[in-house]
Please model this.
Amino acid sequence: MRGLRDALRILATGVLLGFAIHFVHPAGVELFSPPPLRSGSDARYLTLLRFQEILSTGRVAVIDARTSDAFARGHIEGAWNLPAIRFESHFEAVVRYLPRESETVIYCDGPYCVLADSVRENLERLGFGNLKIFEGGWKEWVDAGLPVAKGGE
Amino acid sequence: MNPTDRWRTVASIVLGGLFLVAGALKLPDPAAFSRTIAGFDLLPLASVTLIAVLLPAVELCAGAALLHTPLRYGASLIAALLSLSFLVASFSAWIRGLDPVCGCFGPESGRVGGISFLVEGTVLVLSCVIFRGEQRRIPA
Model:
């Protein structure tokens, strides 16, 4: 009983401290809003508009970091599949399509999925530069009614 | 102080230190931590920022309480519940192939996998051992 009572006191103190810190130093977040997107503050993350501008130059490789199954069900037209969780086994097949000079844009399901970040980290380790992430991902692309393809690798 | 009490004190200091460091590293950037939590795809997005603001402060309080013997009983219960929920969330994300950042020690932590499972499992075991010891020491 005493342990539970103390635990509740510690929890309540933590909650009050959290609110107090937030109100003194809000750090750019709103308590009941989804997490802020990175495309507004970090140049490595692209909005849909910026992604379309880069696509229109034709000098870009697009990487889908989702699983092979998700890719086969539908993907951005012209994208290559390099699943984050099967990176090593798919890398050899995809590497020849990856430009080292021009841009490579990676995407996954949506703004908070991290598979695209995982693929970017792996490619950076292998010496690739100019890597961007389309933050809205597959969900925003489909919602915008843009061209998609099915099947393939 | 008998050897069991001494061992429990050392374990509480280690665990308290871990929670203090974990909370302090998450506290400065709630935006990044909220994206880390969202990456687990377990909670409604509208609740994620609130948790990112409150959780580091709760970890700090639990860590500080673990270092203070009279509060160790309750603090070990919180530590056990927190580490169990981290372990369940990590395992759930891992089996769904989400590959999220662990977020255990701030947004720059490594991804969920062997090391994070080991750390979270060790923290859970330590918390349970301290809790059980305190339960025996303090009559209900």
